[in-house]
Amino acid sequence: MRPRLTDVAEAAGVSMKTVSNVVNGSVHVREATRQRVLDAIDNLGYRPNIAARNLALGRSGVIAFAVPQLDRPYFASLAARMLDEAETFGWIVQFHQTGGRREAELALLTDRHPARLDGIIMSPLGLTPEDVQQRDPALPLVLLGETAGEQHLADHVGIDNRDAGRVATDHLLALGRRRVMALAPGPGLIDVRINGYRDALAAAGLPADEDIVLATGGLRGEDAERTLGRWLDSGNPAPDAVFAATDWLAMGAIRALVLRGLKVPEQVAVVGFDDIPYDLATLPTLTTVAPDRVAIARLALQALRDQQPDADPLRLQAPFTLVVRESTAGIS
Amino acid sequence: MRPRLTDVAEAAGVSMKTVSNVVNGSVHVREATRQRVLDAIDNLGYRPNIAARNLALGRSGVIAFAVPQLDRPYFASLAARMLDEAETFGWIVQFHQTGGRREAELALLTDRHPARLDGIIMSPLGLTPEDVQQRDPALPLVLLGETAGEQHLADHVGIDNRDAGRVATDHLLALGRRRVMALAPGPGLIDVRINGYRDALAAAGLPADEDIVLATGGLRGEDAERTLGRWLDSGNPAPDAVFAATDWLAMGAIRALVLRGLKVPEQVAVVGFDDIPYDLATLPTLTTVAPDRVAIARLALQALRDQQPDADPLRLQAPFTLVVRESTAGIS
DNA sequence: CTGAAAGCGCTTACAG
DNA sequence: CTGAAAGCGCTTACAG
To answer: Quick check: A30 CB within 7 A of strand C?
Structure first.
């Protein structure tokens, strides 16, 4: 059997309470006593039983991290950081895949699953503001991502999408490009990034040409490839740059361009958004906006820990950077 | 407060034991009593407290799933399946990232972390057979992947790499290719896949030309790009097909080929291995060997659950399929 | 088939 | 600063 707190207490000749005080830090314990307890712990190889601790504290020690799909690179890389950072907070992270379905997201909120949770961090897709408002206020919730709009009554962590869109577009303009196309799924979905694109054009004194703001109708690369492909095939003059609202759209755009003989980036420079970990999967590799995932994870965990049932929802912003790769800098 | 087992017992007018019997199925309970208990559970909204159950059972209800990096697409997609399947087994999955470092993998085996584990499923990189042999036999362990060799004294789940290498190469030969190059990191690392390649050539009556079996010296795409690039630049006649031991190597190979003006697949067909979820990130998309990840996850979980401390190590094989995409079939 | 009671290993008022 | 004891919510021999 594994040594218990009692065993340590006995070996050190003190009470359980004293051992507990030593193990959990905080309280003042005489240095000699403390040393004796630590020695006993070392000798016995004692480690606290988490299930018992959680039972006593009325916690589970588990938080849920819910994303549409864990095998999508953006979420996988975010999950990896969340795992790293949660350790610091003493939380076990229980990953959940919602498929972006409202029912699955809602089921998590209403905690209709056996393991009780200390809180939930979710990147929602289908959740309505009403769903969020009607949730159990005793279960801390932090929302992530761009689809969780301002209207949600819950803490939220994201990046400044508008500013990031501006920075990405500025980069293209700084390369001397003047006919910059924008690609986004369509109204309502991450189109705030396109507002940043418009900001950049305006700041550069360029006319806003809404004819080259294309709605792909979907988030998949195929959507972008089809949309841009048809547009090019209709005889429209090619842009000299493309700002895509996500990396997947950027990759679809590159396919459409390259398959029509246009050189990226010589003739058309392309910038994506999200910095999904694709290394050199794409040819050329993708210049993109990289959200600071470590910061996102850390901010979300802090917000979860510090959440008060009655407080106003927090709006937290993580930094981002522009990572310049071959799709704008060229292949060396 | 949440209702407890006692509350249900009181409401139903029975003892805790009877409620427990109903909740945990198995034992015979009179139908009328059972119904009364179920009604009480429903009325009170009772759900068992997992921490308390685990404490009573001496389990943690948590298993570890350890991979080098969760944000590498192969592991992310495997983790996603593991999550789905573990639910069936009633396990919470605690993901771990070892970075492939032996110390991190060993630390997990020796359970030097606060939460006790019911078992570990690991895709090891640095672990030695001695490490595995000297582990705590009370902590069930299942190894995954190709780097966990036959010599490891633990249950193992994988696919038939040799046969998969043969199937991949057969596909290239069936396309009429005759000068098929093989790319692998080098001796000892997943080179059993290359043995399958040799099997296919031999079966087709083609001479084995070890000059076109290239060792990249590493697992990254860059390694393949550099190795194949130099080889081509040295004036060697290009192959008409490449079998790469991993998708990343295949992507590096495609870069090397395309950047030198060779058309894929018209001039050089390429097959990868692993089916990492890249959709249309690569141009052309990648024909590849797809291990059945659901089967891998399920077999690993079953093996973990059924593991006996003294039994001989199990060798389990999951099925695979060849997924034909543009890098051999062409772009339609 | 059903019940009363001990025990799982912690934490934390409450005393001293 | 330290200790004895109750309690967290389950499971499971052990009786009946």
So the answer is: no
Q: Is A277 on the interface with B (CB under 8 A)?
A: yes
Q: What is the pLDDT of residues B164-220, one digit of tens each?
A: 999 999 999 999 999 999 999 987 767 899 999 999 999 999 988 999 999 999 989
Phi, psi angles (nearest 5°) of residue B189: -110, 110
Q: In this structure, what CATH number is given to the domain that contains residue A42?
A: 1.10.260.40
* Burial class of residue B258 (count of CB atoms within 10 Å of its CB; 0-12, 13-18, 19+): middle
C1' (C2) to CA (B48) span, angstroms:
21
Cα–Cα distance between A280 and B289 in angstroms, integer? 20
Is A92 within 8 Å of B115 when comparing Cβ atoms? yes
Inter-chain touch B281–A280, beta carbons under 8 Å: no
Chain A with chain B: Cβ pairs closer than 8 A: 136
Where on strand D do bases come within 7 A of a protein Cβ? 1-14
The CA distances from residue A251 to A80, A321, B135, in Å, are 23, 19, 46
Does the model's pTM come out above 0.90? no
- Residue A53: inside a domain: no
Whether residue A265 is predicted with pLDDT greater than 80 in this model: the reply is yes
Of B79, B252, B259, the CB nearest to A70: B79
pLDDT tens-digit series, residues A3-28: 888 888 888 888 888 888 887 765 67
Domain harbouring B205, CATH code: 3.40.50.2300
Say if residue B245 is in the same domain as residue B98: no
What is d(CA B188, CA A170) in angstroms, rounded to the nearest whole number? 48
Crossing angle of helices A221-233 and A247-259, in 10° steps, is 40
List bases, strand C, within 7 Å of protein CB. Answer: 1-14
Lowest mean pLDDT segment, chosen from A151-155, A236-240, A324-328, B301-305:
A151-155
To the nearest 10 degrees (0 to 180), the angle between helices B247-259 and B221-233 is 40
C-alpha–C-alpha distance, residues B164 and A189, integer Å: 42
Are the CB atoms for B178 and B207 separated by under 8 Å?
no
Q: Do both A166 and A284 map to the same domain? A: yes
Per-window interface: A 187-246 vs B, CB < 8 A = 220-222, 225
pLDDT in tens, A173-194: 999 999 999 999 987 767 899 9
The distance of B296 to chain A (nearest Cα, Å) reads: 16
Q: Is B65 found in the same domain as B209?
A: no
Determine the distance between B264 (CA) and D13 (C1') in angstroms: 70
Do B213 and B127 share a structural domain? no
Number of domains in chain B: 3
Where in the sequence is the domain holding B203, given as residue range(s)?
161-292+323-329
For residue B131, what are the CA distances in angstroms to A277, B65, B152?
Answer: 32, 18, 9
d(CA A119, CA A121): 7
Please indicate, yes or no, whether residues B251 and B186 belong to a single structural domain of this protein.
Answer: yes
DSSP state string for A96-158? EE-TT-HHHHHHHHTT-SSS--SEEEE--SS--HHHHHTS-TTS-EEEESSSS-TTSSSEEEE
Nearest to A103 by CA among A131, A130, A65: A131
